Amino acid sequence: MGRNTRKRRMPLATKAVAASAALALGGGGLIWANFYASAGESGQAQNQTKANAAQQIATIDCPDVGQQLPDVPDPARGEVDGELASMDQQITDAYQRLVTTRQAQVGDAQYVQNAILGPLKDRRKVLIDRIKLEISRAGGQAPGNLDELAPCSGRPADQPLPTDGQNGGGQDGGGQDNGQDQGDGQGDGGQNDGGQGDGGQDQGEGQTPNDNGNGAAGPFAEDFVNITDVQPNSRNLPNGLAANGRSGSKGSFTTKCGVNENKLYNSDNIIVAPGVANGAHHMHDYVGNQNNSSLSSDDDLVAAETSCQNPGDKSSYFWPVLRVQDGTQEFDAADQGGGAEGNVGRILQADEAQLRWVGNKRSKVVAIPRLMRIITGDAKAFTNGLANANTSYSCTGFEDRQSTDKYVLCPEGSKLVRTSNFQSCWDGQNTDSANHRAHVAFVQADGSCANGFKAIPQLQVRLVYDVPTPTIENGQVKNPYAVDSFPEQLHKPITDHNDFINVMDESLMNKVVKCINKGKKCT
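== DUF1996 domain-containing protein ==
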């Protein structure tokens, strides 16, 4: 039965922001309000304005309502997904207003609260009320604290923003203050720690909060670290551990699906926002299934072509594209999800996309049900915190060193590696859940599955790129690479993520399980 039978929709807010973004486009991306660079401004005035800019809000931090909805009745699921997508659009619109009203903010300390955050709270409250009503009409009961999630807060540019602790930070659950004040409780982060010698960047010195010098709102110099400065075996995120080992089910199955040679891209999110145009607000790479728009039903996925060598694997494997911010005018330079939402530069095609299924070091695995959805990592981890984060950056020849909160600078002759080890514990019943998380879980440190969950094959995705190494001079990064992101997430490394929909036929899935449980290496 297909999941998506609704008409594809684009909220009115999307159309409005598209119009405003079109006016702001220049050089392939959004002009991030670099207002103090006016040639007619005196040096003294520029310095004062820069000082004020340093105190301004760099981004908007909103509680993720969707993650607080673990149980939504099936009849209400589609409409609730649509409301959540509209809520994402509201944040995008508010962020757009934030970065295009910098001059007004300099003259009015309450401008952000009164003109942006306050109205945003009111609009979010309307959608939250709709969500509660839709759940109630379907016979369910919404969590009692949803109204508390309406307010959003602002993050000042000079405030340390959260990292995962690898370089002295600590997100502490995202540090959200739910809009009660602007800037407290954000964690003790580490944005000014640098990460590469003296490459740490104080955003008050010569840059607006939303321009990294490459026409984008991030990444900045402090978002990078030399791979040789990452300690071996120091990856400290509890999520994304390899499930396999020297015991239990020791086999593997590798599926070969290419590197998106077909150039299949879109900014939809078929899992989280079915039926909604531009539901992801960033561009995805797709391999495997060739019918991955937000309109695709389960029946469409089953009937689709596949880029996988084994025709029995029509699974959808997708992740945010990686770009180099080098001024290239990509095909989506003026589009939503692309340049109109700050995702600028040249899209890189991976040299390798390794998709490997492995077992569990504590037990045998059971088959993954057909059409099960799994999202690993969190596209909003910069504001949500680390509960669902799952990132790993490394370089070929240095893969015992994994960075989770910073992009890595690889030496000459070495290539960038992005790795995602998926959740591999299943509740034994559901192919998806209302928050798209609760039906699966990561293995624990000893490889076991908690709460009575069953071990399933773990998908391990390894993406290898030949990336020009960015240069960092005087605290500024030139031609950086970054994953596409929601605009307000500032292209932070911690927001990387990966997605999977199982569309293997039954015989192939049985082969995968058999190979893994018998300790064989199969393709």
